[in-house]
Amino acid sequence: MSRLLDSADxxxxxxxxxxxxxxxxxxxxxxxxxxxxxxxxxxxPVLLALLVSVVKALRRQEAGVxxxxxxxxxxxxxxxxxxxxxVIALMVASGRALEQYAEQRxxxxxxxxxxxxxxxxxxxEAGEWRRVELDTVRPGDPLLxxxxxxxxxxxxxxxxxxxxxxxxxxxxxxxxxxPGESVSSGVVxxxxxxxxxxxxxxxxxTFAGIVRMVExxxxxxxxxxxxxxxxALLFVLAALVLAGRSWLATGDVxxxxxxxxxxxxxPLILAVPVAxxxxxSRCARRGVxxxxxxxxxxxxxxxxxxxxxxxxxxxxxxxxxxxxTAPGASPETVLRFAASLGQxxxxxxSESVTTAARERDLVLAAPRQVVxxxxxxxxxxxxxxxxxxxxxxxxxxxxxPAPWSAAFLQRVAYEGASAVFVGVDGAMMGALQMADQIxxxxxxxxxxxxxxxxxxxxxxxxxxxxxxxxxxxxxxxTEVMPEQTPxxxxxxxxxxxRGGTVIMIGDGINDAPALAAADxxxxxxxxxxxxxxxxxxxxxxxxxxxxxxxxxxxxxxTRRIALQSVMAGMALSFxxxxxxxxxxxxPLLGAILQEIIDIAVIANALRVLRIRSTETVGSLSHxxxxxxxxxxxxxxxxxxxxxELADKLPRMPVTSVAGALALVNEMLExxxxxxxxxxxxxxxxxxxxxxxGEDPLAAMSATHRExxxxxxLLRQMTENVPPQxxxxxxxxxxxxLLYGLDAIVRLHCAQEDELFHSLEEGR
Length: 763
What we know:
- This protein is an alpha+beta fold.
- It contains 29 helices and 22 strands.
- α22 links the parallel β21 (520-524) and β22.
- Pfam families: E1-E2_ATPase, Hemerythrin, Hydrolase.
C-alpha cells in the first residue's frame, strides 16, 4: 500500500477527486465558471497521462485502449460537459490506481521473496568475525549466521541449526539441521548463531538463481495478455464504430460521448494481467516458482506429461529393500557388519546401508584397517572379524560364494535393484537388496494429474528396458521409453508437441535440453542441478512431485477465472454501450456504471489468490508423521524375519520348524499385532477426521482384520504341529501363509506411508 501512495496513479486520483469535490460548492452557489475551471484543472493531468500511455502503447505496437478514455474526456471538454469530464477523469484515475493496487497485492509473495535477498555476510578473517559485502564471499570461506539473519550463500553446516525455510519451500515450519548437512541461501536462522562453510559464491547460490527467475517472471507478458491486447483492439474499433453510428444516425454527439464513456477503460485489459500475476503469486506461496505468465498459460493447457525416472518418480537414493542371509546368520547381524564397515566409505550406497542400520537402532562398531576399491567395494576389520562389502565380484574374490547368490542376483536384476554382498571371515554371510524406491507422493500425484486433465504420461529414462518397464507397470504410466540419451529425449518431446502441449519434468543436468524443448519445463527442487533449473519454466522449490499438481490446478483455475472476468466485463460493457447508443444512458451515469464494472472485474480476477491448492481437510503435524514413519521402520526386522523364514522352510530340518515358527509368532504377537491394533483404535479415527467423509479408512481397516486373521491362524497351526514336525502339505501351507502375510503387511505399510505423507503438515 505504501508504494501505491507514492505512485503517480495515486497522485492523479487525489488531484481528480479534490478538484471534483472542490467544484461542487461553487456550482451550488451559482459560480459555475470557477467550478468549470477547477474541474478542467483536475481533468488535464489525467488527460496528459492518458496521452502518454497511448503513445507508449502505439510504439510497442500494442492496442492502446486508453484511446477511448482520451477521446471521451476530449469530447466532454469540447462539448463543455465539464462535470462529465471530471467524473470520467476520476473514474480513469481510480481504475488505474485500483489496477496497480490489485497487481501489487497479487505480487506480494514474489516481491517479498525479492526483498529477502541477503546483502552481507559475517566472515572470519584476521582472527575475528567481520561484516563483508556478499559479493566478496568465496567457496571455502567460514561464515557466521546470527539469529534472525538470512543464510547468505549455499554451504554446509559446521554445527546444529534451526532454520525457517519457508522462503524457498512455502512450508512455515522450523527445520532442525545437523552438522555436515547442506544449507541453501535465503533461509532464516531462527535459533542460536551457527557457523557454516561457504560452498558457492553469492551469484551461484540457490537464492540468487531464484531471484533471477522471479525478476524474469515479473517482466514477462503471457500469451493470454497478448491475446487480450488483440481482443482489446477489436473492442476499441467496435466502440468507435458504435459511437460514430449513433452520432450520425441521431446527430446527437452526446450519445457518442456516452458510448465512449461506458467503454472506458476496457475490463479485458484489467482482468487478464491481474489474474495471471495472482496465479503466479498463488503458486509461489506453495513453493512452485512459475517464471512467467506465458508458462502459467501453457501449464493450464497441458495434456501430455514426460518425466525422468531417477530423482523425479523415485527419490534418487537407494533404500534397503530386503536382506538375504546364509544359514545360521540373522538379518540384523548381516546389516550390522555391513553398516559398521560402511561408515568408513563415502559411497552413496554405503551411506544408505549405514542409514538403514541406524533407522533400526543397531549399535555399530568402529571399523579398522579399511581399504576401499572405488566402484567395487570396501574391506576392513570389524570387532576382530575380516569383513568385505560390495559387488558380487569383489566379495566373491575375498569370500566363498554362497549357493543362494545366483538366485539372489537374478531376483535383484528382475526388480531393477542393486545388490551389496557381505563377506565375513572368508564366508559370504548375506546380501542386501538396495533400490531407488518410488517417492511416496508419486502414485497420488499421477492420479491427481490425470484428474486435472493430463491424458498421456510418458517415462523417459536411460535405464534398462526391464527396470524401466517394472517401474512403469507399478505406476500405470501410458508409455515407457527406456535407454534414452539426452538427444533421444529431445526428439521424443519435439514429436509429442505436434499433438498437444507438453510438460517435461526432470532434475538432472542431462534433462536440461528436454526441459528447454518442452512447452513447459519443470525442474525438481531448488537444490537440483543449476542447468535444469535455468532451462525450466517452472521450478518446484519443494522436492515433491505433488506440488506440480497444485501448479497445474492453480494455472487452470487462473485461466478459467480470467476468461470469466473477460467475458462478463465485455458483455456488460457492450450492453451498456448499446443502452447509451439508444440515448437511455447519459455520459455521467455511464462513467459511474463503467467504474462499477471495472471494480467487479478486478475483484473477480483477484479470486485467484483464494484458489484452494489442496483438497485435504486437515494435516498431520511433522512430529506425528515422523512418529508414524518410525513405527513402520521398527517393523522392518519383523517383515524381514517373516520372509526369511518363508524362504528357509523347505531347507530346514522338520524338527526345527515348530521352534522357528514359535519365534516368529512371538514377534508377531509382541510387535506387529499390537501396532496394527493401536493404529485401528487410536490412529485411524484421527486420520479419518483429517481426510473427511463418512468412513474413509474402511478399506485400510479391513486390511488390519486380514492381518489379525492370518496371524491367529498361523499361531493355531503352530500350536498343533506334531513333535516330529509338519508333513509336506503342512510345510507348504505354512510357507503360503508366511508369504501372504509378508505381502499384506508390506503393502499395507506402503499404503499408510503414502497416506501419512500426503497429510503431513506443510506439504
